[in-house]
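To the structural biology subgroup,

Please find below the input and predicted structure for Bifunctional protein FolD, which we are adding to the shared reference set this quarter. The sequence is reproduced verbatim from the submission form. If anyone notices a discrepancy with their own records, reply to this email rather than editing the shared folder directly, so we keep one authoritative version.
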Amino acid sequence: MSTEKLSTGNLSTGNLSTGNLPSQNAPARVIDGRAIADAALSDLSVRTRQFRDETGHVPCLAAVIVGADPASKAYVRMKANRSVAVGMTSRTVELPVSTTTEELVDVLRALSEDPVVDGILLQHPVPVHIDERVAFDAISADKDVDGVTSASFAAMALNGGGFESCTPSGILRLLDATGVELAGKHAVVVGRSPILGLPMGMLLLRRDATVTYCHSRTVDLAAHVGTADVVIAAVGVPELIKGAWIKPGAVVIDAGYNEGNVGDVEYVAALPHAGAITPVPGGVGPMTVAVLLEQTLAAAVRAAAVRA
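Predicted structure (tokenized):
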């Protein structure tokens, strides 16, 4: 979920015409993130097993969590379970809320140097007294499978082959599942956090979309959203994006997750307007985890090649 706050049915790809936005006259199709992610994880399980058989190495994802936030702990536990389900190993490092930036950096650097660990995840958010950017950048770029380091962002923005930010990358996969050709389309990203909104716009630009960022200083948010062929809601404000704002036929991706299983978009009110829309939960979240684990395997493959 983005940290920035603003003030103001199943998808069948065969029913959407490739290269065009969904029909403006059809009811919104629900983009089933769970089904798309399950297919990706099934394929990943096969590839992980092949890698283990060929190298004798079991890919390992290490997750670091600072503090005892119940939601964060549950999220890390879910990622660990998914890791094991696809044939990987998982390591969880739990640190007290009193942990300093320097102590956290030491832990992340030690994991970066551990040959058993292939990918590192620092669970967001960290306590406010920790310099999150310093902590993120202590992760080796080779193991930054969540795509949060400055090096990964630069490589992603410049198409340099680094690991992509998981949620934005997962969102692209969901957009691909709608059959929409992004080139030339107007995408409005609501939110500019460095791990969600900002990299989302970069990935859309790489697909030749015309991108508008909206944020806490944006004037007349409704007008901007109303011009969008694709809306990405990523602010963490419950139902900030009103259904009536949605342009008929637009694709709506809701990356927000708020208390009570509520997203950043007025879901029910948006259904009559949108061409396709993600639910909350069951939309963006499953694809985020799928991308995280895919990139963990990719890191393990790269490391094996270096060792060889």
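Summary notes: The domain at 58-140 is CATH 3.40.50.10860 (Rossmann fold). The mean pLDDT is 91.

Regards,
Lab coordination
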